[in-house]
Design goal:
With 232 residues, the chain is of the alpha+beta class. It folds into two domains: 3-126, no CATH class; 128-227, no CATH class. It is 28% helix and 30% strand. The chain has six helices and 14 strands. It has helices spanning 7-17, 20-25, 102-107, 112-127, 157-166, 189-204; strands at 3-4, 39-45, 57-58, 62-65, 71-74, 78-82, 85-92, 97-99, 131-136, 139-143, 171-177, 180-185, 215-219, 222-227. Strands 9-10-12-11-13-14 form a six-stranded antiparallel sheet.
């Protein structure tokens, strides 16, 4: 069932996914590699949502209004994910990202979960294995070689599994903006309190690059909502 996009989402469709008409005009100038080796995944905000599990739920068809007033229907490989976040499968490019369509997944013989796992592996291969660096107090920041994709390392299951070996009680993570992924051990109460404050500040100060206003717990090989997202 088609759903009408909000103004903010229409802007994302225009800038992030690239209008189909414009894409056709620049196809010769910008040739995206649409192979499986170029598949990536990014996290974006779904304001007002608070999904309680990681099951990938298709976003559904979207209708967007173009600058000339025409409306178009889009079907992209977007999935409601967890808390107030959704996942967008994309093809990486030098200056921009191109949305992956369901037809692309069919062509690549990938279901959504397989595509997500491949995207995480590609992120590691292209932009480096995520590394944890001291950030503030006991908080740690996760970084790769592309700052705008740091938030995508939230989807790197191997990284968090290895981290939980050092923190058996689990870790609490915040992903308030695209370039920011910060965590603390859940049994460090002072660090978790600092994470609450810092994540709220980062989220409030990054309106154009927000990802999530919630906090998340990684334990027993799964993510759950630790602190619910803010109401819109």
């Amino acid at each position: 069932m088609a759903c009408r996009t909000s103004p903010a989402l229409m802007l994302c469709l225009a800038l992030f996914c690239a209008p189909l008409a414009a894409r056709a005009q620049v196809q010769d100038a910008v040739a995206f590699n649409t192979g499986a080796d170029n598949l990536m995944a990014v996290l974006r905000e779904s304001s007002g949502n608070n999904k309680q599990d990681e099951a990938l739920q298709p976003y559904g068809k979207l209708r967007a209004q173009l600058a000339d007033g025409r409306e178009m229907e889009l079907e992209a490989s977007w999935f409601h994910y967890l808390g107030d976040m959704h996942i967008r499968l994309v093809f990486d490019g030098p200056q921009s990202l191109q949305s992956v369509s369901p037809d692309d997944l069919e062509r690549l013989h990938l279901n959504p979960q397989q595509a997500l796992e491949l995207a995480a592996a590609n992120l590691r291969r292209v932009y480096g294995v995520p590394a944890a660096h001291p950030w503030s107090g006991s908080l740690m920041q996760v970084q790769g070689e592309a700052a705008d994709l740091n938030s995508s390392y939230f989807l790197d299951r191997a990284f968090w599994q290895a981290l939980q070996e050092r923190h058996p009680q689990g870790v609490v993570a915040a992903v308030p903006r695209r370039g920011g992924l910060v965590y603390a051990a859940v049994d460090d109460e002072e660090a978790v309190a600092q994470l609450r404050f810092s994540a709220a500040a980062l989220y409030a100060g990054g309106e154009q690059a927000r990802v999530s206003s919630a906090l998340y717990l990684f334990k027993d090989n799964r993510w759950s909502v630790f602190q619910p997202p803010l109401l819109p």
